[in-house]
Amino acid sequence: MSFPELISKDSIQKRVRELAKEISNEFHGEEVVVVGVLKGSFIFCADLIREIDTPVILDFISVSSYEGTESTGELKINLDIKTDVTGKNVILVEDIVDTGLTISSLVERFKKSNPKSLKVASLLYKPARIQHKVDIDYLAFEIEDHFVIGYGLDFNGLYRELPYVGIYNGEV
Ligand code: 5GP
Questions:
Q1: Cα of 30 to ligand 1 centre, how many Å?
Q2: Which residue's CA is the closest to the ligand 1 atom numbered 9?
């Protein structure tokens, strides 16, 4: 199955390299703990850390707030990180900031661990849908209000493997 392409594989790779450079310049030589928000950010995380030129500790957190294409408005932690982030430079990595519920809840949660610094990276951001204020320090692309799939993002578990970001135009 193929979908209308919103962001090509090449554009993603170029932008990921740019973000990684920003991160490397900012932390030059200091250790960063990259926390990927599963499952959607796993490909973005994998590409990003391979371009970051500063020591990286990788961890993952799994949360769910979505059923189908609509937010349930609640955040559930399915799997927590193993790393103690107190005094560490933390970068939370999201696939997409939609209402902002997930990332704003995670930021509040991580602040309680007193990290040295706390940053947010996101592949995508849909400004039209935002409900919870959130500062994205490293943003790859701002997009219109489409439900998107590919490059880690799914529709009911499918299409994460697509190398581009596409607009889901199938049955909901
Ligand atoms: P938020 O909490 O910001 O409303 O939503 C964040 C999560 O919702 C994302 O991590 C992602 O899992 C899911 N999500 C929001 N919009 C989309 C979309 O357009 N496509 C997909 N596949 N997931 C989305």
A1: 31
A2: 96
pTM for the model: 0.94
Catalytic residues, which ones? Answer: 98
**pLDDT, tens digit, for every residue of 123-133?**
999 999 899 98
For ligand 1, the distance from its centroid to the CA atom of residue 98, given in whole angstroms, is 5
Structure tokens at 36: 């990927």
Each residue's pLDDT tens digit, 100-155: 999 999 999 999 999 999 999 999 999 998 999 899 999 999 999 999 999 999 99
Atom 4, ligand 1: which residue's CA is nearest?
Answer: 99
CATH architecture for segment(s) 11-65+103-156: 3-Layer(aba) Sandwich (3.40)
Going through the chain in order, the beta strands assigned E by DSSP cover: 5-7, 32-38, 56-67, 70-79, 89-97, 117-125, 138-142, 148-149, 165-167
Give me the numbers of helices (H) and strands (E) for the chain, helices first please. Answer: 3, 9
Q: Between the CA of residue 151 and those of 36, 45, 63, 134, what are the distances in Å? A: 14, 11, 18, 23
Q: Read off φ and ψ for residue 82, nearest 5 degrees.
A: -100, -20
Atom of ligand 1 minimally distant from the CA of 101: 2
Residue 23 tokens read as: 């991160």
